Each structure stands twice: as structure tokens, then as C-alpha cells.
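Exercise 7. Given the encoded structure of a 261-residue chain, write a plausible sequence.
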């Protein structure tokens, strides 16, 4: 039977900005290969699949190429879709059960706040091929649970990057986070490259800010930060570090309601 879905632009309050995600609310568990096929058909950086349970929703995320363990923007899009499509009470937080454990989302005015585990980086030597793939000099290189994190000398250098995707694939991690000190009003800017997962230059990557928040808190001495992901679409993220948790806040807008036949 037909399956309805919505497409949501996350970490923005304007259509055609931020990071788009398709959100499917399923009547029951689905085969992983079907979900992967649907994600490939959607051809977005992530497609989210929800299944209701007594105390919340099971949530899985797929890129066009693989299932991933954590995705911030598709979680934000899922919460937005549940509230705006009448599947959850906007006055109550939403609980998601995922491969990365329980996640929570709640509304704060026009903003949606996600409660994620912090994944701050540990300093390391640049792996062979990383800086060559980026074509840039680094002030810092570290390793998080999922990715390498690299700080560049300036926002200008970050925006000018045109990395070699094939070399990045060979690093054997989910992706590479690149960051730099931001210009007003932003505390820092970033980009995220994950060609091995089918994402060349991600529009806005919520999960990357679980590492960026602790990193920039240590550098600035401030736990509340405003960030911008400097992709072609661009997106704004409020980041608040609270111990071993990171609160990520963003806005979202529905741009498509559709039916998968």
C-alpha cells in the first residue's frame, strides 16, 4: 500500500536552505534493504524511518549508500514532522530509540533542541593522506568516535576547500569535519565531508557538532556557542555543552508532502 512521507529542511527557517531529510512514519518494522532502496530513491543525505512504540519511536537513518549510527539533522526533521503532522504532542518531548541509544527532542519556541552524547575529539597525528586530500594546512587534527576533526587557520581557507573525495574515502572513517573560527555572529564555522557514505559536502551535520561543541568550548571557555555550517545551502546551529551531553538547537520547515507508491 502507498506510504506517505514528508521532506523537511532542517537547521533553517527558510525552504531550500539547511539540510533536507525525508521522514517516513511506518506502521511496523521494515526490511533494511527496503529502507536502503527508499533512501537511494530519495537521494538525500539522509532518510529517516520511524516506528511508533509505547514510550516513543524507533528511529533509523539511511544515506543513499549506507545505514548510519547517528544523524542530527534527520532527527530534528523527524521531531518536526511528528509535531507538525499531528503524530505527537508539541508540548511534550519526543523520545527516539536508535543505534546510538536514546535521544530526546523538545520544542523551545521556534527552535527544536536535541539532546545528544558529546563526542569530543582526542588529538592525534594526521593520518597519511588526510591533509593531502584536503589540500590545506591544519592547526589541529583530532579523532572523534566517528570522524577526523581538523581546524584550519581561517574561515576563508575553510570555504575555499575542494577536497579529494577518493582520498578521504581511504581514511576508513565515517567522514572528516573541518572547522575554523567564525566571523560575527558565529563562534565557529564548519564543513563535513563523508564521500564513503555517499555525502560529498554535507549541507548541515548535527552529529558533527557533538564533537565541535566540546572542541570549541575548550578553546573559547564558553559552553554556549552559535555555529554555521558553510555549505552551499548553509545552516545555523545553536550548541550548548552540558557535561557529557550536547544540546543542539535548530529550526525546520516542511517543503514536501508525498506518497511512495
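Solution.
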Amino acid at each position: 500500500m502507498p506510504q506517505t512521507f514528508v521532506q523537511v529542511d532542517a537547521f533553517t527557517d527558510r525552504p531550500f536552505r539547511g539540510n533536507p531529510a525525508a521522514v517516513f512514519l511506518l506502521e511496523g518494522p521494515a526490511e533494511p534493504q527496503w529502507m536502503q532502496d527508499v533512501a537511494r530513491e530519495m537521494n538525500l543525505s539522509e532518510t529517516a524511518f520511524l516506528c511508533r512504540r509505547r514510550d516513543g519511536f524507533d528511529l533509523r537513518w539511511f544515506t543513499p549508500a549506507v545505514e548510519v549510527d547517528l544523524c542530527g539533522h534527520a532527527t530534528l526533521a523527524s521531531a518536526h514532522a511528528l509535531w507538525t503532522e499531528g503524530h505527537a504532542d508539541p508540548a511534550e518531548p519526543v523520545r527516539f530509540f536508535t543505534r546510538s541509544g536514546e535521544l530526546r527532542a523538545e520544542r523551545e519556541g521556534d527552535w527544536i533542541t536535541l539532546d545528544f552524547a558529546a563526542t569530543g575529539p582526542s588529538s592525534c597525528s594526521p593520518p597519511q593522506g588526510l591533509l593531502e586530500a584536503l589540500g590545506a594546512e591544519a592547526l589541529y587534527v583530532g579523532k572523534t568516535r566517528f570522524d577526523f576533526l581538523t581546524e584550519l587557520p581561517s574561515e576563508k581557507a575553510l570555504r575555499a576547500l575542494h577536497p579529494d573525495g577518493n582520498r578521504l574515502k581511504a581514511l576508513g572513517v565515517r567522514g572528516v569535519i573541518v572547522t575554523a573560527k567564525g566571523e560575527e555572529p558565529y563562534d565557529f564555522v564548519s564543513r563535513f565531508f563523508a564521500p564513503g557514505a555517499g555525502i560529498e559536502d554535507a549541507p548541515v551535520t548535527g552529529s558533527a557538532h557533538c564533537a565541535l561543541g566540546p572542541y570549541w568550548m575548550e578553546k573559547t571557555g564558553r559552553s554556549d556557542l552559535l555555529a554555521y555550517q558553510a555549505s552551499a545551502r548553509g545552516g545555523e546551529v545553536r550548541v550548548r555543552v552540558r557535561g557529557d551531553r550536547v544540546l543542539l538547537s535548530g529550526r525546520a520547515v516542511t517543503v514536501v508532502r508525498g506518497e511512495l507508491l
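Remark. The chain has two domains: 3-106+250-260, 122-243. Students should compare their own answers with the one above.
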